[in-house]
């Protein structure tokens, strides 16, 4: 999925939601531990249902502690005890970073010279050991004897079962489903009634019993089950009672006799439900056609946990099966699903029933999709696949670019992966109401209209957005659909890879889109999130639905993609990485994997080159949060590189001993531009030294910023680089220059360099004309400007304005206001002019006003160049007369990219009443679609007039917001970040803390709340430290 709407570069980090209050918590921890691997299909024979998901990291930890020479029984007992210990640790220290082989543990204290205090401690320790022994003794399942501990098989752990809706005990007490029954195939019949916004359905699930069991447990949410029958083997079907436990979205059938391993059985469930009015499950959507009539449609969005809202199913990614879908419709509608249509049957009631072919592949439930709408397609054959793009009829002319791009990319991926796309058709559908950017349903990819539709007139920058979303979703057809992560803890295997492929495929297929600039910028942004203490490891434990939602964040996507780029860049030769992923896809085709499977595949391919072990290097990047700061110090011909965790904390009190295996690259003044100049040094320990001739004037590490780390060069190192750039900008690649700018701002935030040093480096920029360094500097300066503005430091704000216009004034004035072909130049121009007009620079605002007037006078027939539309609409929205004109245009324009820019313009108004109106309109959803509310809030918060209104607004409307956007979802992350990230005072810190903690289960535990609090504290600290310098110097 691409949860990020195309205009937002905001990617929040998420939270560790607490399971502490959950009644499910007790058993999984204990029981997990008793058994080792739970990988399908070889389960331990004893009570396999109790084997729940166990994250790979904890498994490694337990394994690491184990001894070699235990017999099986002993080992079971050992692990129980250890796991108990571990589980205890986990609960008592929820803020600790997760343990990993890369995290150093403090040395154990010894009692060799007992002082009185030490004696007390030692006695206390003995008492604890004794108590633990007692606990273990009485622990069900383990008895200590002379020979050690023996399992006590007569007293199995009995979980506390919850009550079902009908008052009887529900036979399952965990969030993860039992593993004893596995679905093989589903037959789904759906009867949507779009007039009444309801549907009925019938689901037939053919299953295989893997272990003897007396229960079948699966997911169902908001479905009213009206009839259930069960058939075992060749026996007759008979009615069964379905129990439901709503808090876990589970249903179950209990049996008096064991279902036996190896038996086949069929469960048939009939049900009815309402079409969802949010953006997930089987939901209704509508649009207004060209005649002004409202047209309704229904579509699905199942990832991550919403297939269960459309049909009862085993809704976890590892329960793959085949699907056969039948949908009834009125004759004036079309239906679409993952597979091609097999036949159409006329029903007696005048309706038609479409039946689709059974999926030719096993797939996870979150990839199933169906749509009932009156969309029209355009199509094209690519190799063996019919590629089609669907839209509402009015927008058919905006689909051609998508069809052309999807066709090129499909061909590229077929060749690149050396595995053909496995289905006969591939549909790309633009849905009028769609929250995410797009969703990779196998064979039926769904998009937000702005992510798929562009007109012939559209600028290349708009095409870049569409192409990159298509490239992302198509990559998923292999990474995610063909090979799927076993559980959401490894979501990055899907998303990191699709994000990596989205950028790298476009560099080859559509090089004129300059996608490399965007990839560089998203790597910078990912670091900002990952530097916070509230960040998480790429591969991290998740249990609750909110935690699953929260995995859709910049760590899974952008950091995932960044570390893949770093790996690729560090491997010898271009083909190694590709060979490795082809091997991975072949080896696990149709299956589920975890992170280690990927590293192992890459290591296997790599072994022949005697290169370092990929697995060893990469686990340091996936198993711990954050990234390193590499500090360079030179003495004579010795260069010492030291690494530490780049951790932003407001009190400098939290230190970690995390170490990474860093493929450090560097260039120097004698050779700095060509790839051949790059030298590689692997930094695995805290500090290492390399030799360089003393004649080397300067060093630049992290060549072209392909590594996920920040570099501090020390005062002398920075001065040498600054001097080099001042005399000749082109001594470094533009990526390296952008990377220096990003790094020095980051170091200032960390408190390692003063703001004075930052501005010293920026001095060279009066000669800078390349897009990436200018964009990075503008973004950082604008952030600083907004912080000062919100802090009401009016004098400094005025001086900042003068500074920015001085540094970039001539570049701003050199920009033209006519059509521009190059994407890179468009990016540069729009960033410069948006800043200039945002600062009310007269020349800029005059030009923008004139262009808007011309546009209005021509009734929209003269075109504003695509990359200038935003700045023009922003300026127009500041005028009392033009704001209503813009609103009128917004309501009538059909072209989505333009419409969205108008909306951002409208939301950028500094008129308080209009701000309040637009926030409420976004929530109401008639004039402004609710899917756009996060964008509206984000835009309002950037301005001075609206950010406090927005803060009030989300507090007052929190319950409405989480009704539309699930707790933890990317939309909610964006909202929280937007409204809080510019606070920098103690008073606001208290307010934010107070509000979110009052939410309790309605969002208090989100990682983004943690992130918001940390950010405010960091802003506060930065201001305290740097305001005096700024006042003196700026
Ligand atoms: Zn994705």
TrEMBL record:
Which top-level group of life is the source organism from? Eukaryota
Q: Which cofactor does it need?
A: Zn(2+)
Renumbered to this chain, region (Disordered) spans 1-21, 90-114
The residues annotated as site (Transition state stabilizer) are 557
Q: How is the cofactor bound?
A: Binds 1 zinc ion per subunit.
Skewed-composition ranges (Polar residues): 1-11
Which sequence ranges form a coiled-coil region, renumbered to this chain? none
Write down what this protein is called.
Answer: Leucyl/cystinyl aminopeptidase
Q: Give the species.
A: Sparus aurata (Gilthead sea bream)
* Name of the coding gene: LNPEP
């Amino acid at each position: 999925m691409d949860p990020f709407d195309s205009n937002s570069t905001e990617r929040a980090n998420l939270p560790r939601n607490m399971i502490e209050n959950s009644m499910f918590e007790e058993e999984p921890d204990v029981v997990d531990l008793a058994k080792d691997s739970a990988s399908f299909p070889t389960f331990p024979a004893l009570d396999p249902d109790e084997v729940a998901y166990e994250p790979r990291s904890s498994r490694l930890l337990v394994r690491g502690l184990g001894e070699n020479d235990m017999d099986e029984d002993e080992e079971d007992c050992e692990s129980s005890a250890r796991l108990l210990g571990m589980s205890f640790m986990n609960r008592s220290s929820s803020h600790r970073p997760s343990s990993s082989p890369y995290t150093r543990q403090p040395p154990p204290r010894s009692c060799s010279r007992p002082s009185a205090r030490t004696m007390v401690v030692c006695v206390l320790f003995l008492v604890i050991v004794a108590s633990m022994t007692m606990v273990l003794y009485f622990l069900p399942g383990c008895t200590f004897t002379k020979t050690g501990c023996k399992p006590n098989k007569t007293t199995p752990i009995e979980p506390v079962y919850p009550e079902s809706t009908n008052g009887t005990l529900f036979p399952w007490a965990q969030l993860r489903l039992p593993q004893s029954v596995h679905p093989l195939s589903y037959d789904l019949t759906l009867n949507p009634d779009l007039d009444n916004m309801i549907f009925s359905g019938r689901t037939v699930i053919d299953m295989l019993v893997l272990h003897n069991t007396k229960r079948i447990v699966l997911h169902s949410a908001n479905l009213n089950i009206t009839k259930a029958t069960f058939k075992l083997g060749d026996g007759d079907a008979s009615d069964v009672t379905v129990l439901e436990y709503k808090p876990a979205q589970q249903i179950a059938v209990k049996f008096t006799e064991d279902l036996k391993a190896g038996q086949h059985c069929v469960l048939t469930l009939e049900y009815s439900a309402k079409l969802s009015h949010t953006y997930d499950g089987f939901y209704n959507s509508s649009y207004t056609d060209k005649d002004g009539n409202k047209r309704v449609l229904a579509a699905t969005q199942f990832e991550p946990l919403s297939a269960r809202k459309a049909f009862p199913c085993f809704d976890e990614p590892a329960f793959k099966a085949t699907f056969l879908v039948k949908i009834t419709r009125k004759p004036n509608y079309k239906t679409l699903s993952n597979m091609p249509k097999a036949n159409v049957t006329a029903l007696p009631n005048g309706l038609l029933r479409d039946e689709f072919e059974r999926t030719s592949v096993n797939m996870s439930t979150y990839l199933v999709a169906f749509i009932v709408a009156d969309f029209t397609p355009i199509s094209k054959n690519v190799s063996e696949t019919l590629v089609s793009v669907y839209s509402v009829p009015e927008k058919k002319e905006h689909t051609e670019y998508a069809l052309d791009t999807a066709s090129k990319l499909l061909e590229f991926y077929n060749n690149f992966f050396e595995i053909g796309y496995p289905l006969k058709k591939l549909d790309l559908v633009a849905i009028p109401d769609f929250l995410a950017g797009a969703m990779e349903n196998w064979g039926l990819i769904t998009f937000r209209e702005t992510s798929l539709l562009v007109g012939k007139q559209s600028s290349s920058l708009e095409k870049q957005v569409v192409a990159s979303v298509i490239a992302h979703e198509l990559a998923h057809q292999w990474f995610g659909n063909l090979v799927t992560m076993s559980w959401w803890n490894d979501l990055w295997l899907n998303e990191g890879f699709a994000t990596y492929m989205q950028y790298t495929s476009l560099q080859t297929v559509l090089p004129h889109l300059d996608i490399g600039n965007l990839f560089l910028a998203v790597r910078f942004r990912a670091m900002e999130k990952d530097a916070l203490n509230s960040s998480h490891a790429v591969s991290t434990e998740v249990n609750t639905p909110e935690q699953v939602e929260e995995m859709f964040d910049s760590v899974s996507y952008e950091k995932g993609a960044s570390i893949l780029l770093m790996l690729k860049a560090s491997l010898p030769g271009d083909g190694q990485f590709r060979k490795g992923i082809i091997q991975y896809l072949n080896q696990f085709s149709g299956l589920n994997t975890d992170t280690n499977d990927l590293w192992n595949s890459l290591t296997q391919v790599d072994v022949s080159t005697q290169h370092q072990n990929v697995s060893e290097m990469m686990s340091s990047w996936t198993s711990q949060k954050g990234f390193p700061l590499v500090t360079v110090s030179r003495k004579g011909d010795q260069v010492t590189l030291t690494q530490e965790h780049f951790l932003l904390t407001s009190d400098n009190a939290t230190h970690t001993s995390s170490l990474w295996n860093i493929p450090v690259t560097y260039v120097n003044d004698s050779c700095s531009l060509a790839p051949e100049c790059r030298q590689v040094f692997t930094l695995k320990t805290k500090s290492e030294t390399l030799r360089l001739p003393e004649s080397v004037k300067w060093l630049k590490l992290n060549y072209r910023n392909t590594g996920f780390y920040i570099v501090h060069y020390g005062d002398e190192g920075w001065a040498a680089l600054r001097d080099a750039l001042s005399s000749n900008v082109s001594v470094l690649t533009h990526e390296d220059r952008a990377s220096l700018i990003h790094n020095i701002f980051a170091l200032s935030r960390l408190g390692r360099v003063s703001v004075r040093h930052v501005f010293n480096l920026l001095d060279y920029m009066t000669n800078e004309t390349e897009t990436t360094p200018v964009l990075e500097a503008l973004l950082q300066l604008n952030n600083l400007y907004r912080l000062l503005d919100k802090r009401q430091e009016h004098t400094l704000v005025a001086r900042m304005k003068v500074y920015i216009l001085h540094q970039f004034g001539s570049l701003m004035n050199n920009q033209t206001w006519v059509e521009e072909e190059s994407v890179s130049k468009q990016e540069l121009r729009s960033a410069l002019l948006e800043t200039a007009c945002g600062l009310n620079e007269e020349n800029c605002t005059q030009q923008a006003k004139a262009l808007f007037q011309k546009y209005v006078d021509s009734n929209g027939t003269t075109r504003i160049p695509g990359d200038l539309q935003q700045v023009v609409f922003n300026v127009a929205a500041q005028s009392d007369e033009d704001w209503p004109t813009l609103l009128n245009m917004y309501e009538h324009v059909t072209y989505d990219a333009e419409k969205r820019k108008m909306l951002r313009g409208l939301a950028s108004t500094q008129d308080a009443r209009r701000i309040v109106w637009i926030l409420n309109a976004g929530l109401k959803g008639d004039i402004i679609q609710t899917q756009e509310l996060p964008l509206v809030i984000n835009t309002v918060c950037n301005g001075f007039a609206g950010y406090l209104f927005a803060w009030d607004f989300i507090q007052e409307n929190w319950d409405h917001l989480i009704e539309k956007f699930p707790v933890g979802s990317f939309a909610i992350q964006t909202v929280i970040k937007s409204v809080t990230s510019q606070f920098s005072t103690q008073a606001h810190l208290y307010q934010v803390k107070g509000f979110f903690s009052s939410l309790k289960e309605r969002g208090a535990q989100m990682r983004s709340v943690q992130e918001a609090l940390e950010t405010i504290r960091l802003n506060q600290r930065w201001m305290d430290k740097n305001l005096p310098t700024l006042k003196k110097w700026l």
